[in-house]
Design a protein that fits this description.
- By secondary structure, the protein is an all-alpha fold.
- The chain has four domains: 86 residues, no CATH class; 84 residues, no CATH class; 72 residues, Arc Repressor Mutant, subunit A, CATH 1.10.10; 247 residues, Alpha Horseshoe (Serine Threonine Protein Phosphatase 5, Tetratricopeptide repeat), CATH 1.25.40.10.
- The chain is 65% helix and 3% strand.
- The protein contains 28 helices and four strands.
- β1, α2 and β2 form a beta-alpha-beta unit.
- α4 runs parallel beside α7, α21 packs antiparallel against α22 and α24 runs parallel beside α26.
- InterPro entries: NPHP3-like_N, TPR-like_helical_dom_sf, TPR_rpt.
- This is Nephrocystin 3-like N-terminal domain-containing protein.
- Keywords: Repeat, TPR repeat.
């Protein structure tokens, strides 16, 4: 909206008042720097899309946009279109530029650091021209890498097994891989033997919003000084504030991608199972606070950092870890939920949280009694959230999903018919562009697809495709639920293909399932589903046109799916289909209590 008001609108107005072609040789220029540093990838994509739409509609307006940024996937996918020129700035950066940049940094360090001053007095210039030349050559023209290397050299290190002065650390930078993955691994290794290292790093990587050191400590049940002890050696890649009330942030968003991708991070991998621990700890933190104030409403301003975070995001961690959890963990979640509700009876948030715990356990154990208890609690939460309560949509959506899950368990259809109007009301309560709209959209689409499969009503199928397609538009390539929406739309299109035989539907379904598989490397909870869906659609194309490559790929996908299923035998209660609707009911509560 700001770009429309401040840039696009005035240019359109000027063009409407008369020719401005005389400015074509000297167009106005907007420079956008650090786009990759924006945490909200959806907003970045929307910004780029609006720019491209503006230039498509107004090709002769004398305006250019120059974006300087690491071209991350969510940016590159939007810019890889005609009318956009992509260039690598490293190709235009000379070693002289990097050398001048380092000169400024090292000169400032020499003025501030007494260790460097003492070394220079005794040994002369530091770094020497030879050291600086080798460092510049190793950096290879990347200012990002140059900045990270300098931070690595200058940050103090308390580890007795690691060089503790900048002079000793400088030679080590020449062994670093110029790619950021190598740098991340090198820096992280400095703290990996300190107690709680992996828990702290995994927490920072998996949090939905940053917490201060005191909040991280509270969440993990450790002392603040233990968090600081781990992070103080990692300031080349993690920004650690000087006080414990300012959030800890990562220096670059690619660090989170590194930590959450197993084949890149290796021993530093933030495993999705850590979501389960975070979920349980958030419930415990909430209960501890409520025990101090039994029966008294607790205002948001009175919450500790972890409890304030819990009220917004606990359900996100429940959802992210549901398929990797164990039944005893849900037993604990239910006990915690009951204890909290006893202290504050009638709290819709606590009723909802307890219902979520029963629903999640039911999805893992297939317990009909748990389904019934979850449905009863969701009904109660719904009554406590009359329209226009801002969280009413949550209870509508969750109740609908529990009813659909119970139908699958019992083989009946009454719950599906009851769920559809609940989902419709939830969608109506979240007009576009509400960030949570995609959840009831997807669930309504899935419910209509299920009804179509039973009744063969084409109107239900067409509406399902439209709804899930809209939901997918709300979930960018970086959205953790995009693979699920991709598979749902692919399944809907396969349903239409099976009725109509339109080849375009089959081709699009294959493309959607393939993207879902690419976005969900193991141990992503949707990978098993993606393997089966892509295999099914390729097998269908083989039957249609007889391409052997499709058959071979389908066999390979089914083989991987079988191996993945066998690898989960340590989770005897794992049922993929059981978890799908439950995940839908839990997937978008991020900004609510």
């Amino acid at each position: 909206m700001q770009m429309q008001r401040l840039v696009y609108g005035p240019f359109r107005s000027a063009a409407g008042r008369g020719p401005i072609g005389s400015l074509a040789d000297h167009p106005f220029l907007i420079v956008l720097d650090g786009l990759d540093e924006c945490e909200d990838k959806d907003e970045v994509e929307a910004l780029i899309d609006s720019m491209l739409a503006f230039f498509d509609e107004n090709p002769f307006i004398p305006l250019r946009v120059f974006i300087t940024s690491r071209v991350e996937q969510h940016i590159q996918s939007r810019l890889n279109v005609p009318g956009v020129r992509l260039d690598n700035l490293v190709d235009h950066c000379s070693d002289d530029d990097i050398s001048a940049f380092l000169d400024v940094l090292f000169q400032d360090a020499r003025r501030r650091n007494p260790v460097i001053q003492a070394y220079v007095q005794e040994h002369g210039e530091w770094p020497t021209p030879s050291e600086k030349r080798r460092l510049v050559e190793h950096i290879g023209g990347s200012f990002i890498f140059a900045s990270a290397v300098f931070k690595f050299i200058m940050v103090s290190d308390a580890s007795i097994d690691y060089p503790t002065t900048p002079i000793d650390r400088l030679p080590l930078t020449l062994k670093m891989n110029p790619g950021l993955d190598g740098l991340y691994a090198q820096v992280l290794s400095r703290s990996e033997n300190i107690p709680h290292f992996l828990d702290i790093i995994s927490t920072i990587a998996l949090l939905e919003a940053p917490l201060p050191t005191s909040g991280i400590a509270e969440l993990l049940g450790i002392s603040t000084h233990e968090v600081v002890n781990v992070l103080v050696n990692l300031q080349a890649i993690i920004q650690v504030p000087g006080t414990d009330d300012i959030p800890v942030t990562i220096c670059h968003t690619s660090l989170r991608d590194f930590l959450t991708t197993q084949n890149r991070s290796g021993r530093f991998f933030a495993h999705p199972r850590h979501h389960v621990r975070l979920y349980l700890r958030l419930l415990e933190c909430e209960l501890q606070l409520r025990r101090r104030r039994p029966g008294v409403p607790i205002h948001q301003s009175e919450c500790t950092p972890a409890v304030a975070y819990s009220r917004r995001f606990y359900i996100k961690h429940s959802y992210r870890g549901i398929e990797l959890s164990e039944p005893p963990e849900w037993d604990l979640a239910i006990r915690l939920g009951r204890d909290a509700l006893k202290l504050h009876p009638g709290s819709p948030e606590l009723v909802q949280a307890l219902a979520d715990a029963f629903h999640s356990r039911a999805a893992r154990t297939e317990s009909l009694a748990d389904f019934e208890e979850a449905i009863s609690l969701y009904h109660k939460a719904l009554l406590l959230r009359p329209s226009p309560h801002e969280d009413r949509w949550m209870s509508l959506n969750s109740l609908g999903s529990a009813l659909v899950d119970r139908d699958r368990r019992t083989g009946t259809t009454a719950g599906l018919e009851e769920a559809i109007p609940l989902y419709r009301e939830a969608v109506e309560l979240l007009p576009s562009p509400h960030p949570d709209r995609s959840t009831p959209l997807t669930n309504l689409g899935c419910a209509l697809l299920k009804r179509h499969q039973r009744t063969e009503n084409m109107d239900d199928l067409e509406e399902a495709i439209s709804l899930v397609r809209e939901a997918l538009e709300h979930r960018s390539s970086s959205h953790p639920d995009r693979p699920w929406s991709l598979n749902q739309l692919g399944s809907s299109l396969m349903g239409r293909y099976q009725r109509m035989g339109t080849m375009a539907d089959l081709e699009e379904a294959i493309s959607l399932h393939r993207e879902a598989l690419q976005l969900g490397p193991n141990p992503h909870p949707d990978r098993l589903w993606s393997l089966h869906k892509l295999g099914d659609s390729l097998l269908e194309r083989y039957r249609r046109i007889g391409t052997m490559a499709d058959l071979e790929e389908a066999i390979s996908l089914y083989r991987e799916a079988l191996e993945l299923r066998l690898s989960r035998t340590d989770h005897p209660y794992f049922t993929q289909q059981s978890c799908q609707c439950t995940r839908g009911s839990l997937s978008a509560y991020g900004n609510h209590g």
